[in-house]
Amino acid sequence: MASNKPKTDLTPLKQTALSHLLHLEATKQLTGEHKRILAQYFRCSTKTIKRWMDNARAHDGHYTPKRRDSLRLTPAIHDALARWCGNIAAAHRELAAEGHLDVPGQPGHCYSYATLHKTVTRELDPGHRAGLKGGETARRRHDIHNTRERGHRNQAWEGDHKTADIWVNLNGKPVQPSITWFVDCATDGICGLAITPHTPSREAILVALRAAILRGPHHGPFGGAPGLIRIDRGKDFLCRTVEEALGALSIKRVDLPPHHPELKGTIESINDAVQDMCFAGLPGYTKRPSSKPGKRKRAPLQDLLTFDAFVTRLLQWVHQWNHEHKIRNLGNRTPAQAWEDDLTLIRDIPPEALHTFTLEPDRTTFTIQGDGVHWKNLIYLDTWMNGHAGEKVTVRYMPHHDDRIELCDPKTGKYRGPGFLQRKDPDAEERQRELRRARERSAAVLKRRLNKTEASLRERYSAVSDATSPRRLNPPAETDPDARLRQLRAETDNTSRPLPEPTASWDTPPPTEEDDREHP
């Protein structure tokens, strides 16, 4: 019965044992007992041990087993394998016909296909053989990579674009949406994303960056300013606008070499996860298996999800990933739990600092009305608008987040303030109270100023008891400020006034020795 025990290469052990025997022989300590013990272990005769020792002496004390004359890969064989895309059988036929596989010393004999196959598999690793057939992409599947330490939250993010493997209906036209998102490497949490029905651009990156940085009821716990962001060398990620935006927030941008997805493995794993966990179950999935060979047919337009419905489903999946999906490498915790367990301080950036370069502008000018700003059939309001009704503003907004807009001056572009959607504002009641107090403050300030003006305009005179002109109690303001200043200085000048004579109640200093000498 054949044994299933794997074979063991005993060559290194033989080399070590024979080197020891040669050392004993050189020091005249070698005995026949040493040879018998070694022969018993290797299950051979002492003559074999002596023959191995002769081999070691012939190779400078290093035992080198004799290898059979076998085929070696030559440049001609390498060229044939590359030319035939790793097809060993085709390469063997060509090499045999050209005489590159002739056996030395045996005219008319050539190495067989089995010999060539054995030689190729022995001398070329699986990655190289896969590369001959499928190119660099196939070769990389056999590469081994280091694993980065997770670090702490917001220590490093990764950003990327993902073309959704699904067709959706956009106003009667099938399109494949694109997702731009940023992921925290320590917790695998999706901090923010932007979805576009077309190829993403720098605007999508800035919108996704703003959504990733902001935190709160509408953005979740993930966010803050990261220490660095790893991106590939996409043209839109490397543009000056994105570079200036990251530089303004003191965020380091790490530009990874192209075609190396393993260098940003966190976000690549999420790209695969959203495909398997979300897209595969939706109509219009482009990689669904087909029972018929050939090109996959796209689902009818009426069966596809609308773009808005797709966005809703994707945002639901992101919430599920962040708060419900447990990850084994996180200790069977969700990304939200891993984020909360990390006590690293978060550098939050206020939304007012992000309104300029991380929002899409609406080219239309809007008017602040009595109930706020009307935009897309919605009403936005904030306390700063009190007293500014009738002014013109422009709107900057974040796609897929209609709870807040940012308002700017249409002429100067200066930031005016935010506007909050009333029906989605969790602090609506507090904001209403603050707005009422702001109205009351404005009315009180105006009332005080009007009353002060009225009082200053009324003329008041002092009473008189003889036939003289009355003196005005509230004289008009001095038209010459320099003259008034000279008058005040004259009134406060004490240099010409005589000092009063001392009295007995004044304290005088005690006499000194000099005074005693002068007045004995």
Structural commentary:
There is one protein chain. This protein has 520 residues and is α+β, with helices and mostly antiparallel strands. It is 37% helix and 14% strand. It contains 15 helices and 14 strands. The chain has a six-stranded antiparallel beta sheet with strand order 9-12-13-14-11-10, with helices on one face. Helix 1 (11-26) crosses helix 3, helix 2 (32-42) crosses helix 3 and helix 4 (75-83) packs across helix 5. The longest helix has 30 residues, at 428-457.
Order of helices and strands: HHHHHHHEEEEEHEHEHEHHEEEEEEHHH
Supply the number of helical segments.
15
How large a portion of the residues is in β-strands, by DSSP E?
A: 5-15%
| Rg of Cα set | 44 Å
| Secondary-structure content class | alpha+beta
Biggest sheet, in brief?
Answer: 6 strands, antiparallel
Overall 3D shape = elongated
> Could you tell me the number of beta strands?
14
- In spatial order, strands of the major sheet run 9-12-13-14-11-10
**How much helix, percentage-wise, in residues?**
25-40%
- Average pLDDT taken over every residue: 81
Distance between the termini: 142 Å
Instruction: List the uncertain runs.
Output: none
